[in-house]
Amino acid sequence: MLIPHIRAQLLHSLNGLITISILATPWVMADSCFGQDNPPQTEDQNQARQALDEGVQALKNAQYVDAERNFLRAKQLDPRLLNARLYLATTYASQYIPGAQSEKNFRLGEAAVAEFRDVLTLQPENLSAIDGIGSLLFQMAGQPYDPAKFKEAKSQFQKHIQFNPEDPEPYYWIGVIDWTLSFRANGEFRARTNHDARGETLQDSDPLPPDVREQYMREYGPIIDEGIDSLKHAIERKPDYNDAMAYLNLLYRRKADTVTSENEREELIKMADDLVDTVKEIIQRKFQTPRQP
Q1: Whole domain around residue 210: which residue ranges?
Q2: Does 133 map to a domain?
């Protein structure tokens, strides 16, 4: 029950990354959201702020056509108004549906990424834009499966760490991406082995045959180790980070498929099982703790 619960929370958390600045800020004047725009000096800039505020209200009410129109107008009137670009990207991202294969959905994802990239041309350290790109690329990489997009998403979270190394979230997402890549590859290795096998098939919990294990370790061992280290960094910064622990458990199981010693494999699986128990305890404790008003 644990892993399906974590997976069900994954896209919800990603959407939170895109709109974190909005969700954390009261719906007041848009100049205070995302931050760092200069006070208006000209009539065009004043009109841009007005269009921005109207767009924010429309986005709050999920009126995406009106929101897009106002943010585009604000951007045209004041091209250096970062908040207009960030909210325009968020408008597109809010409509993007992970896995939907329509041309319109694809254009929404690409448009959001492009707007976030434009923000970075003006302010390279803008974490809202960096996280927005990483989140969208992660979602777009899932279906159809595109490992290059996963790796590009990871590069954005690595960039986040350069600017804010104490934030646990980018470490978590790097771990999730590394698990996604190594898990997918593990399944492909097992499927090929079973296709070529004669007789008993290889089960998901069985050790990989030596030659397959060696290839898997060579190609994905560094990715697995990176993910484990990254999730440990996330937990160091947030000791009750149960989602990070859940994925660390999963990566320990992938690590177990790279080792030659049966004792080491058993130890890694035990470490994974212990984390499952820890996650259950944390979730139970959070469930029993009354929420603060």
Answers
A1: 172-288
A2: yes
CATH number at residue 88: 1.25.40.10
| Residue written as token pair 């992970």 | 98
The structural domain count of the chain equals 2
Q: How far apart are CA 42 and CA 40, in angstroms?
A: 6
Domain finish residue from 105, 132, 148: 148
Residues 6+ apart with CB under 8 A from 57: 27
171-230 pLDDT, tens digit each: 999 999 999 999 999 999 999 999 887 767 888 899 999 999 999 999 999 999 999 999
Residue ranges of alpha helices (H) inside the chain are: 2-18, 20-23, 43-60, 64-77, 82-95, 103-122, 127-142, 147-163, 168-196, 210-237, 242-256, 262-288
Is 293 within a domain? Answer: no
Q: What is the pTM of this model?
A: 0.86
247 alpha carbon, distance to own chain's centre: 13
Whole-number Å distance between alpha carbons of 200 and 198 = 7
At position 223, the amino acid (one-letter code) is I
